[in-house]
Design a protein that fits this description.
The chain is α/β, with parallel strands linked by helices. It has 11 helices and 8 strands. The longest helix has 14 residues, at 22-35.
Length: 316
């Protein structure tokens, strides 16, 4: 027998002229009735046949709506006893509405999400030596098992940093001590760490125009004042940056391969940029995102190599 009081509590309104599909409308009405307390925990929902007849829709539409509610742990199937409302904590609406990681939402893609078509920075997964990597990782875990109860160096494992320093000396002509290296979870974390350490909030910063969107977003999040500087066939137009904002405290650049144009910062522009940083006490953040993946010839030396390197923070 159909419980008419349950129909009254649902208050489902189906608008066949609305853009939203009818199934979505029914699901939303049921969900709101449960979260709003109009349907009590343990209360039985109408059968799919009764609700479909009441609303004038197909039984399959009701079944899909019920399945979505089951997936959300709002209702459960009780066999012969029908579909009933689950017990829910009273703060469910407040929890659902909380803006998780709000300020960083535009700076990080969802974890474990699949790469998008033509997305930058995605390697060829089919060419990755997965079996070799798994063996090396297992060996590293066994070797490190005795250190599980000790505090780790926040800069990263000393052996790893020493290996990175040796690699950079060969591949990027950078002479650095392992103590100058900080291992982070990636470019985003390295950039925000550098901007925070430099106290870039409220300060002027050169940004390539066009430039890497996440670099721009990082500067915006830290509260820096963006000063766009044009890029041409030789890379960043340093003279334009000096004319626009000579008092900027940092420049965020991709000198090895500009993102997205792909040009390499010319020798003359490199010297001009380093000279500006040295004379004005500014910093250069070098995003070396493709420094070792050149399509033609050997990669140009990093800005953080040679004279003027003391004003460069290399992220790559």
């Amino acid at each position: 027998m159909t419980d008419l009081s349950t129909f009254d509590a649902l208050s489902i309104q189906v608008d066949r002229a609305a853009v939203a599909p009818i199934g979505d409308q029914i699901h939303a009405s049921l969900r709101q009735a449960i979260l709003g307390g109009r349907l009590a925990p343990g209360q039985r929902l109408p059968s799919g046949r009764d609700l479909a007849a009441q609303l004038g829709v197909a039984r399959g539409t009701i079944r899909v709506a019920y399945d979505r509610l089951i997936a959300e742990n709002l209702v459960f199937g009780a066999g012969p006893a029908g579909t009933r409302v689950c017990a829910r904590p009273p703060t469910i609406e407040a929890v659902d509405d909380l803006p998780i990681d709000g300020p960083l939402a535009a700076f990080n893609r969802p974890f474990s999400s699949a790469p998008r078509p033509f997305q930058m920075g995605v390697p060829a997964h089919d060419a990755f030596p997965a079996k070799l990597w798994a063996r090396m990782r297992a060996r590293a875990l066994r070797d490190d098992s005795s250190n599980d109860t000790a505090y780790a160096d926040p800069r990263g494992e000393s052996v790893l940093r020493a290996q990175i320093a040796s690699h950079l000396a060969i591949s990027r002509q950078m002479q650095c001590h392992p103590d100058q290296i900080i291992v982070t979870g990636g470019y985003r974390q390295g950039l925000l760490l550098a901007l925070t350490a430099l106290r870039a909030q409220g300060r002027k910063a050169w940004i390539e125009e066009p430039g890497y969107p996440l670099g721009r977003r990082g500067l915006e999040l830290i509260g820096a004042t963006l000063e766009p500087v044009a890029v041409d066939a030789e890379g960043l137009r340093v003279d334009d940056g000096i004319a626009r904002a000579p008092d900027a405290m940092l420049a965020l650049v991709t000198p090895g391969q500009h993102a997205p144009l792909g040009v390499t910062l010319s020798r003359a522009r490199r010297h001009a940029l380093l000279d500006w940083a040295a004379s004005s006490g500014a910093w250069i953040i070098e995003d070396d995102y493709l420094g070792e993946l050149q399509l033609d010839g050997r990669a140009a030396p990093a800005l953080a190599s040679g004279a003027g390197a003391e004003r460069v923070i290399h992220i790559g």
